[in-house]
Amino acid sequence: MLDSACDIQLEGVIGKQAGSLYASRRTTDWIKLKCKHRQEFVVVGYTEPKGSRQAFGALLLGLHDPDTGALRYAGKVGAGFSEATLQSVRGQLDLLRTRHATLDNLPSRREATGVHWTRPEWLAEVAYAEMTREGIIRHAVFRGLRTDKPASDIRPEHVVPADSVAATVPARRGRARASPPADAPPHARAETETEMVRSVRITHPQRIIDSASATTKRELVEYYALIASRMLPHLKSRPVALVRAPDGITGELFFQKSAGKLPIPHIHTLDKTCAGQPVMTIDSAQALVGTAQMGAIELHTWNATTARLDQPDRFVLDLDPDPALPWKRMIEATQLTLAVLDELGLKSFLKTSGGKGIHLVVPLTPSQGWADVKEFTQALVQHMARQLPDRFSAVSGPRNRIGRIFIDYLRNGQGATTIAPYAVRAREQLPVSVPIRRDELTSLKRANQWTIANLHHRLAEQDTDPWHGYARVRQTITAQMRERIGMKRFA
User: Fold this and answer.
1) Which of 24, 180, 252, 405 is the most buried (most CB within 10 A)?
2) CA 284 to CA 67: how far, in whole Å?
C-alpha cells in the first residue's frame, strides 16, 4: 500500500495499532509512513527575494527542542513555491512581523543578514533529504502551510521501534533498509545507504539530484527501471552517450560518449575499430539502471545501429526556437515542417525534446552514408528557410534565430546524438523527452510538460504506442526528393 501511495506522489500512508481504539485525540497508536523525510516546522522569519524572485526568498524554520522546549533554528526552505504561493504566503507573513527573533539559537551572521523575523505561529510542511547533526535540514522543498495545530507541538519526528524490535524503514517495491543509528559515523551511514534495483546495487539512493522537485537518485533509478520496456526498443544496438550529474543537476555535468573506466553494470562497449571511436550500447534493463547508478541522467543516441554503423537508419530535425517566441509559433513551425516532409513522401514521428523544442524523427532504410544524409537534411532546412525566412533559420546560434526557429540538422552527422525517447533531461523538475501522436500536437502545452513525476499518468491513459508502426517504415531519400528541394547534385 505504501508503494502504491508513493508511486502516485502521495505523502504516504497513516497506520494504526491493530488492537487500539478510534480515539478523537492525538495518540501514539497512530503513525505516519512517509514516502520521504517530511516534517512540520515553525516559520520564524523570511528573507528578501533576489534576482527575478518575487515576494520573498526563503522561509526560516525552527523546531522545539524535545527536552527543553526551546525553539531552535532548523534551516531554510526556498524551493517548491509557485508565483501564486509566494504572494499568498508573503501576505500572511507580513501580519506576523516582529523586531526580534524568537529562536533560542540564532543562525550564523551571514544567514541572518536581511532577515525579517516573524512570531512563531505559522507552520510549514517541508520535505527534505536529511538533517545534519546540528539539526539543520538539507535540500528542503516547501509543501504547504498548516494552521490546524499549535506551533508549540512541533518537535523533531523520529522512527519509534515497535515492541522493542529494531525497526526497519519500509522501502518501495518490497525492499527494506536497515536504519543506522543517528550517532553512527558518516562512513557507517554511507555503507548502509544502498538498495538493489534490477539486480544492480544502488548507492546513496536518498541523494537529492534535483532540489526543485526534491527528487532522489532512487526515484530516478526506479523511473528508468519502470520505463525500460518502452525505452529499450529505441536504445537497442544504438551507440549512446550519457550526460552524468554525480552531484545533481546543479553540479558539474559530464557528457560521456564511451564507458572509459566507469564500472557501469551490464553495459556493452565497442572499440574504436567498429565505430571510428569507442562507443557503448544499452541493451537491457540492468544496463539502463546501471547508467543511472553511475550518475547518468540524460541518454543520447546515434542515428545508426551496430548492424550498420556506416549507414544511418533515421534522421532528426530539431526545432529550436527563440525563447521569446510564444508556444503557438512552435506548434505552427512543427506543422509546416510536417507538411514539407509529407509533400516529399517521408513519413515522420514526433516527440517533445523535454526542453524548449520539438523533434521530428524520420526513419530510413539504411542504404546511404552519413555524408549523403546530412547533406540532404541541410539542403532541406535551407529550402525551408528560403521559403519562410521570417519563421525559420538554417544557421545555428542565438543571434541567428531571433524571432525565428532554427531547424537543427547538425544532429545527422556521424557521432552526433539526440536525446532518446523517454530519456530524462538534466533540468529543473527532471522533464522527459516523450513520443507523441501527430493529432496530439495542437493540444501540447509545452515541450517539457511531462516529468518523471507525472509521465505515469499519460502512460496509464494510452492504449497504443504513439509511434505505432515506426519499425515497419521502409523509405529512402530519393533523387526526386533531392531535386525538389533544390539540391544541385543528386544521385
Assistant:
1) 405
2) 53
Backbone angles phi, psi at 242, to 5 degrees: -115, 145
Beta-strand runs (E) in 17-164: 30-34, 37-47, 59-64, 71-77, 115-117, 123-128, 130-131, 137-138, 141-146
Q: 375 with 477: CB under 8 angstroms? A: no
Compute the C-alpha angle 439/407/413, nearest 5°.
110
Closest CA to 310 of 263, 275, 282: 275
How many whole angstroms separate alpha carbon 283 and alpha carbon 295?
A: 18
Task: Answer for the pair 448, 348: CB distance below 8 angstroms, yes or no.
Answer: no
Alpha carbon 236 to chain centroid, angstroms: 23
Q: DSSP letters along 122-170, please?
A: -EEEEEESEE-TTS-EES-EEEEEE-SS-GGG--------STTPPPEEE
Cα distances from 58 to residues 8, 91, 369, in angstroms, run 28, 14, 55
Matching residue, cell 504513439: 466
Distances (CA, A) of 168 to 55, 160, 200, 313, 386: 42, 10, 21, 50, 66
**Straight-line distance from the first to the last Cα atom of the chain, in angstroms, rounded to the nearest whole number:** 62
- Three cell numbers, residue 133: 547533526
Residue whose cell numbers read 485525540: 25
**CA distance linking residue 331 with residue 446, whole number of Å:** 9
How large is the angle between the packed helices 285-293 and 217-235, nearest 10 degrees? 140
pTM: 0.64
Residue 240's nearest CA partner among 416, 392, 480 is 416
Grid coordinates given for 282 = 544499452
Cα 112 from Cα 205, distance rounded (Å): 32
Q: What is the spatial distance between Cα 50 and Cα 57, in angstroms, rounded to a whole number?
A: 7
C-alpha cell at 294: 553511475
The alpha carbon dihedral of 251, 254, 255, 259 has a sign of negative
The C-alpha atoms of residue 292 and residue 298 are separated, in whole angstroms, by 9
Taking CA atoms, 469 is separated from 234, 362, 421, in Å, by: 13, 12, 15
Q: Where are the beta strands (DSSP E) in 276-340?
A: 279-281, 296-301, 314-321
Three-state secondary structure of 429-484? CCEECCEECHHHHHHCCCCCCCECCCHHHHHHHCCCCCCCCHHHCCCCCCHHHHHH
Question: What gap in Å lies between CA 285 and CA 232, rounded to an integer?
Answer: 7
> CA-CA distance, 353 to 84, in Å (whole number)?
28
Rounded Cα distance between 111 and 47, Å, is: 9
